[in-house]
Structure formats: C-alpha cells, structure tokens
Amino acid sequence: MRFTTLAALAVALFAGAAGASPLLHSDSSTGNLNSIDRGLVTITNGGNVSTIGPLGGGFTAVGLAYDPTGNVVYGVDAANDLLLTIDRNTGAASAIGGLGVDIADGGLAWDSSTGTLYLSSTSLFQVNTSTGSASAIGAGYGVLALNGLAYDPTRDQLVGVEDTTGVDSRLWSISRTSGLPSSLGTLGVPVTGAGLAYDPTQDVFWITDDEIGVSDNFYVAPGGGGSATRIGGLSQQTGNGGLTFVPEPGTGLLLLVGLGGLGARRRRR
User: Is the Cα dihedral 143, 144, 147, 152 positive or negative?
Assistant: First the structure.
C-alpha cells in the first residue's frame, strides 16, 4: 500500500479520535505559541491552529523542544540568540540565557535517551539548559541549513530537515558525536522556515512549511524517511516556526517508560 494511502487513512482516523496529542507550534512573525490539532487538519479546511498566547517580552521562537521528564518546553529566539522556556498553557516565555552564537534560524530537539538539548542551524550544537550556552559539535554542515530538528526515539537518531526554496528538501540523520549529516532521502517538495516534530504514536514526522504569500503547508512523512504527503494548509499564516510533539497525559508515562528502556539499552552497549 502506498504511503499516501496510509497517510490519508491516518488523517481520517485522527479526525475521529478524541483527545489527540497536540503539536505545539511557535510563530516568529506574531510571537505566539500555537497548538495544531492533527485530527482537524484536512485538505479542505486547512487546519485548526489555535493561539495559546504571546511569548511576550519581545521574544520570538524559531525552534521548540519538549522535555517530557521535566515537563518543560524550550524555545530558541534567533533574533536575540537566546534559549527560552515557554509556558505551554499560556505561551509566556522566560529567557534562560544567551546562546553565545549568532543564528539566523534554527531548530531544537530534546534527546530523551540522554537528557540532552540540541540546536541545529548551519551546524549542530549541544545546549546547556541551565545557562543557555551552545557548544558546536563538528565543523558545520557546509552549504546545508537544517533549521528544523527532531529526535526520533524509535531509531535513536537526531533528524533535521533541509531548508530550500527551488529544489526538493531532504531529511537528514545527524551524528551527535561528529555533527555530520547523512541523507534519509528526499521529501519530494521544497520546504522553508520549517518546523519538524517526530510523532512516536504514529512513527511519522510532521512538517510545517512557511510558504510565502499563501497559507502555510502542513506535511506528514514516514519516520524512516521518504516522500512527504501534503495534508493541507494551516488555518493561520505563519512565519518561520518551531514544532514539537507533546504527548497526552495518559500516553506520556508510556512514552517515558519506552524512552527509559531505550536509554538503558544504550548504556549497556
């Protein structure tokens, strides 16, 4: 069965499911924290993007990451080069500290197997969650800009999405030791200003695309890499944005147990 058929079936199931885990989305053009209901994103209506609230303090966020152990949402402010914490219920942000590096855009991901926060832009960075300081891993990606970042616990890998305009974007697996990316294949579409989130309940990546002048695109792609399927356009125009998956309280414990088991296996290697 083709993935497009599976994606269409998945969307139909999401639409009928109650209490689907939301995606948190940050909008750099408005400075808001939003929630995207996966079950209400369809080809016809675009999608249900609900504003939770402004970050305030003059902050914006181009990347988001969720730490399920501490129940913390992190954001990265590229305009001020700051690491933020964001209240998932109100959207209010507080600055932890300066990154110590200058970025124009970037994505965040929380590695639950090691309890590490990573930042990706034109290079991979490890971020100190107490001070906000970012330390480069490796010499950078060269001509690539991987501005959307997610951690895939199923395959224990960091994944970035390539920022392009004229050619199709790719998903890339990024080494946490060398910072070097390895291609997971083309998405079949160009994306820019992308947000990337891995959904462990479906083994898929959700991708937001800041397509200038039109309603932003919302895509789904297989967890192991492959072509993206356009689910629809989002119901609000957005700028560059971050995206992160937040499990429902009932599924959070199961995810933590699974991630804890993965971490234990990694430590025994």
Answer: negative
Query: Mean of the per-residue pLDDT values for the chain?
Result: 83
179-191: pLDDT as tens digits:
999 999 999 999 9
Number of domains comprising the chain: 1
**pLDDT higher for 128 or 251?**
128
pLDDT for 211 beyond 80: no
226 burial level (CB within 10 Å; 0-12, 13-18, 19+): middle
Q: Cβ neighbours of residue 195 under 8 Å, at least 6 residues apart? A: 25, 26, 63, 64, 107, 148, 206, 207, 208, 241, 242, 243
With beta carbons less than 8 A apart as the criterion, state whether 161 and 148 touch: yes
Domain that holds residue 130: 3-268
Residue 225: which CATH number? Answer: 2.120.10.30
- Per DSSP, the residues of 40-107 read G--TTT--EEEEEEE--TT---SEEEEETTTTEEEEEETTTTEEEEE-TTT--EEEEEE-SS--SS-E
Reply yes or no on whether the pLDDT at 260 is more than 50.
Answer: no
DSSP state of 214: S
